[in-house]
Structures are given as C-alpha cells and as structure tokens.
Amino acid sequence: RWQKIFMFPLWSKVAVFWNRMFLTIIVLLIVLFLDAVREVRKYSSVHVNEKSANVNTSAFDHIQMKLFRSQRNLYLSGFSLFLWLVLRRTVTLLTQLAKEMASHAALETQVNDATEAAKKYMAENKRLQEALSGKGDGKKKESTDATEEKLKEEVEHLKAELQKTSNAFHKAKTEVAAVKKQSEGLRREYDHLMKQYEQLQ
User: Fold this and answer.
1) Rounded CA gap, 115 and 142, in Å?
2) Where exactly are the structural domains of the chain?
3) What is the pLDDT of residues 7-38, one digit of tens each?
4) How far is C-alpha 94 from the geometric centre of its chain's CA atoms?
5) CA distance 41 to 75
6) What is residue 2's predicted lDDT score, i.e. its pLDDT?
7) What's the gap between Cα 147 and its chain centre?
C-alpha cells in the first residue's frame, strides 16, 4: 500500500521541487523561532524592569500581552519546526520500508523459481540416469556420460545461484527488520514527545 502511495507518478513530478520547498520551510521556521526567542528575551527583561519600577497598570498589562504573544509564537514555531522534521523523517522511513518490502518480495519469487528449476533439473537427471543405465553400446555410453556431466554442471550452477539468491534474500530480510525496528522506535519517540507537548499545553 505504501509503495503504491509513494510511487504514484505525481510525486516524481513534485520531487524536483520537494527538497527546495522543504529547505525553504525549515529556514522560515528557524527564522521565526529565533525571532520569537529574541522577543521573549526582550519583553521578559522589560517585564521585570517595569514590575520593579511599579509603573501604571495599563503599561504593565501591555507588556504582559506582548510577552504572552512572543511566548505563543515561540511555542508555535518551535513545535512546528520539530514536527516538520519528524514528518520528513517518517516519510523517508516509510519510503525505505516500501522499497525493502518490494525487493524482499522480488527476491522471494526469484528464490522460489530457482528452487523449482533445480528440482526439475535434478528430477530429469535422475530419470535419465535410470533410463540410460546399462543400455546401449560405447557411443551411447559416451553420450550418456557427457549428458550426465552437463546436467551435473547445470545442477551445480543452479545450486550456486540458489545459494546466492538465498543470501540476498536473508540480507534483504535483515534490512527490512532493521527499518521496521527504526520506524517503531521513531513512532514511540513521537508518541512520547506528543505526550510531553500535551503536558506543556
């Protein structure tokens, strides 16, 4: 399902502009976050000075309003920046998982095909050995030996291919498990951070 979603032809057209758009949004959020930090520091110091100076209440309330707005902007920009990075990482992991699952299915099909071909050649070799054992003169015996050697070489070749494909299949399976484990860890971390965010709210 994820492979169908992320391999949709529309994404390949948008992918050219995706990195630029992502970097632009990241830079914009960083600028907003730094501006909010500056505003919070500015109005915090003014808030303390005005409180110690005991000025009129309207000016003090105005400073409190400015401080509240700057803190609100700080939280919004900070969590937006964090969640945008988490979203980017999640999409990347899902794409990698979809590709690994597709390669895993292709390797499994290849292993099954190689196994069936090896079984077929071994059955043919056994049948030929049974049919040609003890029959014919010297020429037939020589041709039988040549055919048998050829079949043995083909069987050895297919066994080597089967072993290679099996190793690649196990490697892909290990990579899929690692990506799944990483995705699960990221999901747990995201849930934990969302709980912290809710507690902060």
Assistant:
1) 30
2) 10-124
3) 777 777 777 788 788 888 889 999 999 999 99
4) 4
5) 14
6) 64
7) 49
Q: How far is Cα 126 from Cα 120, in angstroms, rounded to an integer?
A: 10
Alpha-carbon gap, residue 133 to 120, rounded angstroms: 20
* Residues ≥6 apart with Cβ < 8 Å to 4: none
| Closest CA relative to residue 98, chosen from 18, 182, 1 | 1
3-state secondary structure the chain: CHHHHHCCHHHHHHHHHHHHHHHHHHHHHHHHHHHHHHHHHHHHHHHHHHHHHCCCHHHHHHHHHHHHHHHHHHHHHHHHHHHHHHHHHHHHHHHHHHHHHHHHHHHHHHHHHHHHHHHHHHHHHHHHHHHHCCCCCHHHHHHHHHHHHHHHHHHHHHHHHHHHHHHHHHHHHHHHHHHHHHHHHHHHHHHHHHHHHHHHC
CA 191 to chain centre: 18
For the stretch 126-154, pLDDT in tens is 888 877 675 544 545 566 677 778 888 88
